[in-house]
């Protein structure tokens, strides 16, 4: 099942309850389901936000039937292959990568590869005294929302 590991918001993580995409199978048909979804969205919207972008780099997999997210583990996501498929389908539609939460180098590298703007939460910038805080306005990247 999908979710996120324990963090500063929840000691037991988040258990979303939905199944995880079978990315290996999706890759076999060139991520057709994703491409169809993005093409359909481009007929309705000017901007598409990719929720939980970090799941494209790696994602938290929780065994069924867990009661919370603590027994989960990290799995490697589809990465650049899925980014390329989405870009192909999106054509000129603007895409925003929702890159909130606990991020690591694999997420930062994938976001740089995609060239999609990421997101910041202004209030989160002042939650800690860490001068490198991702959400501190002085640390915003030029390509961000």
From TrEMBL:
Keyword Glycosyltransferase part of the UniProt annotation: yes
Keyword Glycosyltransferase in annotation: yes
Name under which the protein is recorded: 4-alpha-glucanotransferase
Listed EC numbers: 2.4.1.25
UniProt-listed SUPFAM superfamilies: (Trans)glycosidases
Record's keyword terms, sorted: Carbohydrate metabolism, Glycosyltransferase, Transferase
Top-level taxon: Bacteria
BP GO terms, sorted: carbohydrate metabolic process
InterPro entries the UniProt entry points to: GH (IPR017853), Glyco_hydro_77 (IPR003385)
Catalytic reaction annotation: Transfers a segment of a (1->4)-alpha-D-glucan to a new position in an acceptor, which may be glucose or a (1->4)-alpha-D-glucan
UniProt xrefs under Gene3D superfamilies: Glycosidases
PANTHER family from the UniProt entry: 4-ALPHA-GLUCANOTRANSFERASE DPE1, CHLOROPLASTIC/AMYLOPLASTIC (PTHR32438), 4-ALPHA-GLUCANOTRANSFERASE DPE1, CHLOROPLASTIC_AMYLOPLASTIC (PTHR32438:SF5)
Species per Swiss-Prot/TrEMBL record: uncultured Streptobacillus sp
Enzyme class, first EC level, given as a word: transferase
Family membership noted in the UniProt record: Belongs to the disproportionating enzyme family.
Any one GO molecular-function label of the UniProt entry: 4-alpha-glucanotransferase activity
């Amino acid at each position: 099942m999908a979710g996120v590991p324990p963090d500063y918001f929840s000691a037991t993580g988040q258990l979303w309850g939905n199944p995880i995409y079978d990315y290996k199978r999706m890759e076999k048909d060139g991520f057709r389901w994703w491409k169809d979804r993005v093409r359909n969205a481009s007929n309705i919207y000017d901007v598409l936000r990719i929720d939980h972008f970090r799941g494209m780099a790696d994602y938290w997999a929780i065994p069924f039937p867990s009661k919370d997210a603590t027994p989960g583990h990290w799995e490697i996501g589809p990465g650049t292959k899925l980014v390329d498929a989405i870009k192909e389908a999106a054509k000129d539609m603007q895409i925003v990568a929702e890159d909130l939460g606990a991020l690591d180098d694999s997420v930062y590298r994938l976001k740089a590869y995609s060239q999609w703007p990421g997101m910041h939460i202004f209030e989160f910038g002042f939650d800690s005294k860490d001068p490198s805080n991702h959400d501190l306005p002085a640390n915003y990247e030029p390509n961000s929302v």
